[in-house]
Every structure is written in C-alpha cells, then in structure tokens.
Batch of 2 targets.
Target 1
Amino acid sequence: MADVSVGLGAVQNAQTVCSGAIQDLNSSAQKLNNRYREAGQRWRDKKYTQLGGIVNECSRALKAPVDELFECLNKLKEIEKRLLEYDGTNIS
C-alpha cells in the first residue's frame, strides 16, 4: 500500500461536511412535510392523499443516508481521537 497521510484538519473538515449533510437532509425532509401539511389546510381530496404518499417516499429517501452519515461521523471522530493521541506521543 502506498504511504498515506491523514491530517487532523482534513478529518475535522470531513466531520463538518457530514454534520452539515445530516442537518440539510433532515431539514429538507421536515420542510417537505411542513409544506404538505400547509397545502392540506386548503386542499383535501384524492390528489392530496396521493401526494401524501409521494411526499412520504421522498421524505424517507432524504433521510435514508442519515444513519450512514452518523456512522461515518463516528468513525471520523475515532480517527480524530487516534490522531490526537498520536500527536501527543513523544517518541525519543
């Protein structure tokens, strides 16, 4: 395997990206559901019910990667911890 170097800054940046993606996906799903409910205040018929099924599918699809992103975030935190431990090791 080729020499690989992982910088603390890169790991922390990846954590920020993962956290942002989690927030964006959850927020988008929530906004979609809110807009659907708002539409229901003035639009209640068969088409509204059909739209509800589509909105639910979209919301599930938006939230599907969140668990994987949390897992990735946990692994990145572990890598960060190990890098900090390594940086703190004094080899003489």
Target 2
Amino acid sequence: MPNKKQKLPEPSEAFKLSVRQASTNAIQCELCGRTYFNPSTGFDWEEGELEELIAQSEEEPDKYLSLNCDPEWGYIDGKQAVIDCKCNLLSKYENLFWESRRIIAEYFRQRAKQELGKAQESISLSARVSDSVKSSK
C-alpha cells in the first residue's frame, strides 16, 4: 500500500461503475472530507448555499472543489464516496476486494449454502402447514 505521501492510483472504471449510485449538485466525500459542487447546475440552491461553497472553495481549494458537472457518488463501507474524488480511496477497497476474491467467493458459497438450507426448511414447513390445513377440512 502506498504511504500517505504517495498518491493512490485511480480506481478502475469497472469498480467506479459498481459503486456509483447517483449524482447530485453538491456532496461530501466521507472517505476524505472533500466537498464537490457544480455551480452551474439547474438545481435550486438554498439562499446563500452556493455563495458559501464558492467562498469556501476560494479559501480551501483542495477541500471544496467546483466542477462543471454534477458529482457522482455511492456508498462503500457505510460512507458516501465521490466516484472521481482526488483522494482515490476507492482504490483501496477495490484492491482489498480483488486481493481477497478467493476468500469472498468462498464466503459467498458458504453463505448461499446456508441460505438455501433455510429456504428449504421454510418450504418444508410451509408444505406441512398446508397439508395440515387440507387434512383438517
């Protein structure tokens, strides 16, 4: 893993597409704290909201970033993540998932087997209840 001074690689397009859920006029990347906003969007801003974001972007240009398009985002690890955020922290998740793919696949196999067992048990119980209702008529 790169240290804090090294820039993380950008996550792949496939991973970004997998995480992406929506776009909006302004959103904070909860992975790093940066806020992205589109000042030219047709969105109705609350009074002073856009002006405040513009002022903040002038004071802290690496923390408040103005875009020419609506930022896209999704959730990962319970946090909002801006898809094309400069932090590239999504690449850490992508690397974890890819490097752990055999563990993840085995977990999915075991979990699906458990869920199938529970479903078969429910079907059997349902059939017994149905048979019991039919026999009591």
